[in-house]
Design brief:
The protein is mainly β. It has one domain. It is about 5% helix and about 25% strand. Strands 4-3-5 form a three-stranded antiparallel sheet, with no helix packed on it. The longest helix has 4 residues. Bound molecules: zinc ion. Zinc ion binds next to loops.
């Protein structure tokens, strides 16, 4: 992927081929399905983990269909909030917020992990 070029007026110019990493081309939610950009915030009432999901749909993720990444509980034992970040059904690089601008959080570093490497070392120290 080539780096975006800055033009006068802070407009980002990109070749259409460079958009692929930012647009979901083969997932269950396609650009044609998009109604906007939303963040679903959850708090699991079983283990108290708080986590967020970014989505192009306001009704795809619910407390009933999301599984807690910490304790694995599925179902409605969660608090669920939703915020609309972008009301456009069109993906863009203008001033409106897009998921790629929000995730990963600025300052994050990519953690390189082996697929199927098993539980992290700290998990073996967990009490039964
Ligand atoms: Zn949980």
């Amino acid at each position: 992927m080539s780096r975006p070029k800055r033009a006068p007026g802070d407009v980002v110019m990109m070749h259409v081929d460079d958009l692929a990493p930012f647009v979901n081309l083969d997932g269950p939610v396609m650009l044609a399905d998009r109604t906007g950009v939303y963040v679903h915030s959850f708090k699991c009432l079983a283990c108290r983990l708080e986590f967020q999901l970014f989505s192009w749909l306001d009704d795809r993720h619910t407390a009933s269909n999301v599984t807690c990444p910490e304790c694995g509980k599925a179902g409605g034992l969660k608090l669920h909030w939703i915020a609309t970040l972008n009301e456009s059904s069109d993906f863009g690089f203008g001033g409106a917020r897009e998921i790629f601008q929000l995730n990963p959080r600025p300052g994050s570093i990519l953690v390189e992990e082996e697929p199927d490497a098993g539980p992290p070392a700290w998990e073996s120290q967990r009490l039964p």
